[in-house]
Amino acid sequence: MEDGALFVMQVTVDAEGFVAGARLMRGFGGRRDEIASEQIWRFRYDPARDDDGRAIRSVIEQRFLVQ
Fold first, then answer.
1. Structural domain that includes position 57
2. In this predicted model, which residue has the larger pLDDT, 2 or 41?
C-alpha cells in the first residue's frame, strides 16, 4: 500500500493509552475524512514512558486506512 493512500492524524495519547486529542493532518475530503476523524477515538495505545518507566502523555503521528 502506498503511503499516499493513508490518512494522517496527529494524536495526543494520555498516560493510560487513550486518545486525548486528534487532528486530521492529511485527508481526502468528504465522508471518509469524517469517518477517519470519528474512528481515531477508538484506537488504544501503549503509552510512552519517561526515563524512569512511568507512563506519560505524548503526541504521535498515526497513519491509517479508511475503506
1. 3-64
2. 41
